[in-house]
């Protein structure tokens, strides 16, 4: 502090801003340059002061957010977001660029995270907007503040907020608490009113200008007014001063007192406009503030910088201090020359990208219309409403669908910020950054499709990373149907999109390990060790471990699976697990993974199934038999896919035993005969003989229908090519009595209804061609005269000469 400054009287200026307002940001920058403070205090978590230094890094690019989380419980976290057009960010940059001491002055994150105090309410800006003749507070603020750059705006805003605070009610438990000047210490909610429950992510301490909480109207409590309460007009809900806001403002005043005590003479305080009146000089004695702050709960919190996105700054995302048009606000702040013309040029680019015709003449006419609307409304500059109307009328030609594209891609927009690598982080996050950089995977806010060829080293590395992150709950990539036409298993397609909340997921997952691979291995082993994990769950985990290439987890999973399979006597569990286990044996060919250790487990499980299946198929009901049929289909496909002669022989042998059993449900017998026929274990003549035996006298009509359903269910092509089988079924159906036909027709309709339309048509034609006696009399005769009439009619319809 210079001697001149030491002799100056102290001065504190309060700059009440709107969070994420470009007009506020530009006006604040001008005001700071005029005031030239020696200390700047900014609304934000006080324990984030050590992180201010990172704002000067060249690699720091808004939007970013301060992330605070409970060290022992990372899922309890809060964010303080900033965009380049946020006044707080501009204050930070001004302080860092001019080497001015800067501090955050709001409640520390350690105290914010210790309580779950969320109060929502009415925006006090609505009062000012209504006084100005606006029915929308956002439009009013945009017209009065955001479209101008005037450092003198702050005094007027503070005066207006002070008038509003005088009308606000105090919560009952805080009625005796007033500010040093007699004005109740009040403000907005700390958190988003629509924030998720405790233990999930929330956006904290960036309350909207003038947000309060709804309360009962005094008029509603006073019966006896003229006309009675029933006839009285509805009264607007008053603003309420909640205790949490009083505590926050008490902390801000304490930080302000400490800055003055430390020798600061010219202090600039940047805070939400609603708090500005409570921070004006004189502050008065500190005793009342100390009483409010005494005994507040606290947790051990860690803070860092994380990337943020424009869409998360939007009010539509549920963010309490959000704005409706972050993309528009970013444009206003960064484009100082001809902002309307440059904006409409961007709009034209978006529409052209969607194959909509937009010319330069369209842009010129839209600019003229926006400026004319602004002049008619006595606005100094066209705002978003005027630009949107011009866009709809000229560029979109009245098409609201095209206008929505502009709203999504430009008005809200999407941009992902970046933080410097030296910012504090957990080792797992550092490993993820390094791995993604090596694999050339860029964290982006927009959805991007990634097609991978698993025969390439880099692509297989990307696949492993994305699978590992999914296991850790970080769904950066989501598997999707590929756009590349390919056969085989060497293709994967992912939809990539990075969300800001993933930063918390990564921190939370860091308890499992310091690298992505180590954390994924520890997590999957922990999941597999839980008491409820059976052979099906363990097989899925093993398949996932191979996809993600987690060699450190394979031995443990295989051992656990072997133990679980040894004590599980339920054949349906083993049958459900077998296909997945056999599928994993293929990954060694495609991904280069050693799957030899799985062979013993797969072989032993198949042996147990083959030994226990004959005893497990007796006495089954219709529903159980149908479920088991599907499992037999899947297991047969898996065994054949493995292409292992000994395993295939074991499986077909047990199917042959089931096909010869008279005490097995007809649905299963029919299906095993069909599977054996498809595997060339029996020929079609043998299959026809078995079908004829199943349809012979002695079996009930329902049992015969079940056999037919098992044999042809879902696979009608065999009846198209094998006329002998078709004749057997056709003859059986033709010989049914009316009572028997009514009994079996529902099952047969379900069976034949599942065939492809082409298969049903071919079967019908085969039945017709094979039974000429059933043809209607005279159907084969032709009438040339009638045919000629038909041809003339068709020619008239088509407009061609007959």
Provide a descriptive summary of the structure in words.
This is DUF5682 family protein. Residues 1-23, 169-238 are annotated as: Disordered. The radius of gyration is 37 Å and the shape is elongated. With 802 residues, the protein is α/β, with parallel strands linked by helices. The model is unreliable at 1-7, 174-202, 205-234, 484-488 and 772-780 (pLDDT under 50). The protein starts with a helix and ends with a helix. It has a 4-stranded parallel β-sheet, sandwiched between helices. The protein contains 35 helices and 13 strands.
Name the features.
802 residues, alpha/beta, 4-stranded parallel β-sheet, 35 helices, 52% helix, disordered N terminus
* Radius of gyration based on Cα positions: 37 Å
User: Which oligomerization state do the chains in this entry correspond to?
Assistant: single chain
What is the mean predicted local confidence, pLDDT? 78
**Which regions have little confidence, pLDDT < 50, spanning 5+ residues?**
1-7, 174-202, 205-234, 484-488, 772-780
Strand content: 5-15%
Helical residue percent? Answer: 40-55%
**Would you tell me the structural class of the helices and strands?**
alpha/beta
Number of strands: 13
Shape call:
elongated
Q: Specify the number of helices.
A: 35
**Biggest sheet, strands in spatial order?**
1-9-2-5
Question: Could you give a short account of the major beta sheet?
Answer: 4 strands, parallel
Protein name: DUF5682 family protein
Pfam families: DUF5682
Region (Disordered): 1-23, 169-238
Biased composition (Low complexity): 175-193, 214-230
């Amino acid at each position: 502090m210079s001697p001149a400054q030491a002799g100056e009287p102290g001065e504190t200026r309060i700059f009440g801003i709107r969070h994420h307002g470009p007009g506020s940001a530009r006006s604040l920058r001008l005001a700071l340059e005029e005031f030239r403070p020696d200390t700047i205090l900014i609304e934000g978590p006080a324990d984030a002061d050590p992180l201010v230094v990172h704002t000067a890094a060249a690699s720091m690019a808004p939007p970013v957010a301060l992330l605070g989380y409970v060290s022992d419980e990372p899922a309890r976290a809060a964010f303080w977001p900033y965009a380049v057009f946020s006044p707080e960010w501009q204050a930070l940059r001004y302080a860092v660029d001019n080497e001015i001491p800067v501090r955050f002055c709001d409640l520390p994150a350690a105290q914010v995270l210790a309580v779950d105090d969320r109060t929502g309410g009415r925006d006090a800006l609505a009062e000012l907007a209504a006084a100005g003749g606006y029915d929308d507070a956002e439009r009013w603020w945009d017209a009065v503040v955001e479209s101008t750059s005037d450092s003198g705006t702050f005094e007027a805003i503070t005066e207006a907020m002070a008038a509003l605070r005088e009308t606000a009610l105090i919560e009952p438990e805080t009625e005796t608490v007033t500010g040093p000047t007699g004005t109740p210490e009040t403000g907005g909610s700390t958190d988003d009113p629509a924030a998720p429950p405790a233990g999930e992510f929330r956006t904290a301490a960036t309350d909207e200008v003038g947000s309060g909480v709804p309360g009962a109207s005094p008029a509603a409590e006073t019966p006896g007014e003229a006309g009675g309460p029933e006839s009285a007009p509805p009264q607007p809900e008053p603003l309420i001063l909640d205790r949490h806001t009083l505590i926050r403002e008490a902390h801000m005043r304490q930080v302000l007192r400490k800055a003055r005590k430390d020798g600061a003479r010219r202090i600039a305080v940047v805070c939400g406009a609603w708090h500005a009146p409570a921070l004006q000089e004189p502050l008065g004695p500190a005793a009342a503030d100390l009483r409010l702050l005494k005994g507040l709960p606290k947790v051990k919190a860690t803070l860092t910088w994380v990337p943020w996105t424009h869409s998360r700054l939007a009010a539509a995302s549920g963010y309490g201090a959000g704005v409706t048009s972050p993309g528009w606000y970013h444009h206003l702040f960064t484009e100082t020359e001809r902002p309307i013309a440059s904006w409409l040029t961007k709009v034209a680019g978006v529409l052209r990208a969607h194959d909509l015709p937009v010319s330069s003449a369209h842009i010129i006419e839209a600019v003229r219309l926006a400026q004319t609307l602004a002049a008619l409304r006595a606005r100094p500059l066209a705002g978003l409403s005027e630009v949107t109307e011009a866009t709809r009328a000229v560029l979109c030609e009245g098409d609201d669908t095209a206008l929505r594209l502009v709203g999504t891609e430009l008005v809200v927009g999407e941009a992902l910020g970046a933080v410097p690598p030296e910012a504090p982080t957990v080792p797992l996050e550092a490993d993820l950054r390094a791995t993604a950089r090596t694999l050339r995977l860029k964290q982006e806010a927009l959805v991007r499709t990634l097609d991978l060829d698993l025969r390439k080293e880099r692509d297989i590395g990307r696949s492993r990373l994305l699978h590992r992150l999914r296991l850790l709950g970080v769904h950066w990539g989501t598997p999707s149907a590929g756009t590349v036409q390919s056969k085989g298993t060497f293709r994967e397609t992912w939809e990539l999109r990075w969300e800001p909340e993933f930063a918390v997921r990564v921190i939370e997952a860091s308890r499992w390990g310091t690298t992505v691979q180590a954390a994924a291995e520890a997590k999957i082993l922990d999941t597999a060790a839980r008491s409820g994990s059976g052979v099906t769950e363990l097989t899925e985990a093993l398949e996932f471990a191979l996809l993600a290439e987690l060699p450190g987890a394979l031995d443990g999973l295989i051992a656990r699976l072997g133990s679980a399979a040894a004590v599980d006597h339920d054949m349906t569990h083993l049958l459900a697990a077998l296909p997945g286990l056999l599928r994993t044996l293929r990954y060694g060919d495609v991904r280069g993974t050693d799957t030899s250790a799985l062979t013993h487990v797969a072989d032993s499980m198949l042996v147990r199934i083959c030994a226990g299946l004959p005893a497990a198929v007796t006495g089954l009901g219709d529903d159980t038999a149908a479920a088991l049929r599907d499992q037999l289909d899947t297991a047969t496909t898996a065994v054949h896919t493995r292409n292992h002669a000994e395993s295939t022989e074991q499986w077909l042998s047990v199917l042959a035993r089931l096909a010869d059993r008279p005490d097995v449900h007809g649905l299963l017998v029919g299906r095993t005969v069909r599977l054996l026929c498809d595997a060339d274990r029996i020929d079609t003549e043998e299959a026809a003989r078995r079908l004829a035996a199943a349809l012979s006298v002695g079996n009930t009509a329902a049992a015969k229908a079940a056999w037919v359903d098992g044999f042809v269910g879902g696979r009608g092509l065999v009846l198209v090519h094998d006329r002998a089988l078709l004749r057997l079924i056709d003859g059986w159906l033709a010989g049914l009595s009316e009572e028997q036909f009514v009994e079996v027709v529902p099952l047969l309709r379900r069976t034949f209804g599942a065939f492809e339309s082409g298969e049903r048509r071919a079967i019908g034609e085969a039945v017709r061609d094979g039974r000429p006696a059933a043809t209607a009399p005279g159907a084969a005769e032709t009438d040339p005269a009638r045919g000629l009439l038909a041809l003339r009619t068709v020619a008239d319809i088509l407009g061609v000469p007959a």
